[in-house]
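User: Hi! Is it possible to get a structure for several chains at once, not just one? Here's what I have:
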Amino acid sequence: MSAPTLVDFAEVVERFDPVLGLEVHVELSTNSKMFCGCPTDFGAEPNTQVCPVCLGLPGSLPVVNRAAVESAMRIGLALNCTIAPWGRFARKNYFYPDMPKNFQTSQYDEPIAVNGWLDVPLDDGSTVRVEIERAHMEEDTGKSLHVGGATGRIHGAEYSLLDYNRAGVPLIEIVTKMIPGTRERAPEVARAYVTALRDLLRALDVSDVRMDQGSLRCDVNLSLSPRDSGVLGTRSETKNVNSLRSVERAVRYEMTRQAGVLLAGEKVVQETRHFDEATGTTRAGRRKETSEDYRYFPEPDLVPIAPPAEWVEELRTTLPELPWARRARVKAEWGLSDPELRDLVNAGALDLIAETVAAGAPPADARSWWVSYLAQQANVRGVELVGLPITPAQVARVIELVASGELTNKLARQVVDGVLDGEGSPDEVVERRGLKVVSDEGALVAAVDEALAAQPDIAAKIRGGKVAAAGAIVGAVMKATKGQADAKRVRELVIERCS
Amino acid sequence: MDLTRLSAAQLAEKIHSREVSAVEAAQAHLDRIAEVDGTVHAFLHVATEAALASAALVDAGLDAGAPPASPLAGVPLALKDVFTTADMPTTCGSKILEGWRPPYDATVTSRLRAAGITILGKTNMDEFAMGSSTEHSAYGPTRNPWDTGRIPGGSGGGSAAVLAAFEAPLAIGTDTGGSIRQPAAMTGTVGVKPTYGGVSRYGLVACASSLDQGGPCTRTVLDAALLHEVIAGHDPLDSTSIDAPVPAVVEAARAGAAGDLGGVRVGVVRELGGEGYQPGVERAYRAAVERLEKLGAEVVEVSCPHFQYGLAAYYLILPSEVSSNLARFDAMRYGLRVDAGASAEEVMALTREAGFGPEVKRRIILGTYALSSGYYDAYYGQAQKVRTLISRDFAAAFEQADVLVSPTAPTTAFRIGDKVDDPLAMYLNDLATIPTNLAGTAAMSVPCGLAEEDGLPVGLQIMAPALGEAQMYRVGAAYEAARDADDDLPLIQRVPTLEVSR
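Assistant: Yes, the chains can be modeled jointly so their relative placement is included. Here is the combined structure:
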């Protein structure tokens, strides 16, 4: 197949209107799977989190996880959707080895949440309203690992390994309505939408929302209409878009590729395409027109979901503060300017700082830690700030230890390093590494006396009134205590002992 | 004393009074199986050691003075090979599951074990419960003890034949369109399809999820009631299980046996009977209705006009669910694997081609077609509407009557081979039993004599509203007592002597 002709982005925008559609799959962080009691931990040994139900063994039956339904409703409510008073699961029938029953239990024409919207903040401070068509519940499939062959895909592989740990993990699929009118901002809007959705889901505490681990997955639908024609084009569906940056790149690439096809007088093929992270391009996958007939029908092994109105209202009134509301609030409370706020948001620091403040830290300290030392560490480790293995509560504890004088700033950074290296909580790291400030006065006095005895000439100078000379003794004491003494207190002691 | 000729209730009494040990009871039935099952072929698996070990445990408990775990503790039972058992293979009568040992027990299996019931083994059935003769078992047909040239009904022919052959006093069947009741009618035994959701389906390998229901197969109505109370009741592992008290069916059966049906309204369903019904079946049934009237019941005629569409609706809903339920048999995780293919898809296709029999394939194809895009509304959608209409027919009829009656099946047992190549003729045998499954209500079959023309048993079907089993058992027990009082020998004891292999 010849390489596609790509059209310059500016020309694409001049001649076509892009129409976006985004489908996001979110793995819920419930303790157990959608239809059985198996745990959902990421990264467990293959096939250790399975039972007759999620393995689809003959005779086994599903039972709906109430916590998953509750998460789905909270997501729906936070997206301003209507919660369906009655709805059934359906079976989506197709054969694939990583699907134990060869059907996926999903919601088809009776989704739990419909007709909502999300106001998505853009970089310039404006917002764009993205209409939500539906959010529905379904179960995840297992994972296939295709061994041998060139592509890592099932065709051409020598053999395949199957891991069913993920089979039956609760998923919510959130589908937007068509998003027209974004023009040259289409790539940015797509990225901003997924970012806003991720922040929302994190605030709801319903998912790990880790794109790198697949707990948030995005399919990008895109078509081009001739500019101002209002005539819808044929869309492609791009999968395997595994980072926020990739969302943006995938949209941009598809715009330039489809424009090339159209300007050559050809037709865009309705198909599934795969995004290639390395090249930033998409390649054709399964053709939609030959796709299977899923033979949906209502799942007879489950009873309909009919959440009582009181339950829905209770969930509505107990929704947490949503990210944009929180932003407006902290901006006022911390006296931030628009650019300052945006920097914090862009760095992914704002929510973390807010949570650190919520855990008891002064806003200035919280901000300082996240935008300087922790930002550096995230950079060094090549992860996003939120991906650092330290919680806002832990950062707040470190700040508290400094404020109480138990840690110096230098020691505090070592404590944070320990937490990041997986050595435990801040208190555990302090304990294990022996990092506490030496506050035992007896030990300090002994160290001061020893240093004075070792440098009698300096001791004499101090006694003679040259207080400035005390620095040398303080330095010696700090060295002897491996930096774990409070330098200010040492200085006081030196002068005390010499007077 | 021949322990195999006793009812379960009688045998339990002897075991609990220590006149007989549970091991002796198990051994007597194992001996009988060894004698006759070569001829009958009701069992696919006999678990001799496990049965004796389980019986020994019951004996140990009783000897130590503990009360019996249930009124049926120590009584042997044969389990349809469609319920999972962690200590025995589970094949569903299919090659595709040959040798499969499930890692878990069905809820019904666990409840039987907890009740101290001795599980003798697993019984033969039409493959995945699809059929009305047990000829569609991949392991060969079961023979009717009344005439070994004839079928014992199906799909649960094995669970009915063990009773008529005195290989077990109790069995468990499943009823999707009549698979408990029609074999009961064919073998002169009692079979009950409980209300949908009354008995857990967890571990019952699905045929059609919205229709399947496990239930008791016995030789007496009281035995059925005793077994019903062991296996019924809410199960959190089955979402469709009813969270309500189990109807007091044992009490109802005991009360019914006293023989008074005063104040009970019995509805004769106009549409179930007449044309297409064997004259001897029709006559035995009419005589049964007269007997109910003599017992004091008020007999009224009711009309269920939509029952005539039941069969057609059933053969759309059932295959649709089957096509999806049986998709999991793909050689990837368990069961048969034909490994000649180059790809996973080829292995799946070759395995399913080799592992499924013709009737299963027929229904998978029918169901796949009925659910296809563009046909769904015309087939599956319309069938669901018929289902609603049939439920309404039942609701209206139950306004006029406490229970409804009909012949269980239009004919007596037919000859092996007679209908195996004519699926429609085979399907028609379930005409009278299917409406109950579509509506999710309860029904039972009680033997009501022998047909004049062939001397084979006829079944009386008694139907009740959802969770209305108590009234059904009362009527069944009253009828049974009156029938036996008029005869010198209870019907089931008239089974001809089987040729014994020694």
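The first helix of chain B runs from residue 8 to 16. The radius of gyration of chain B is 21 Å.

User: Great, thank you!
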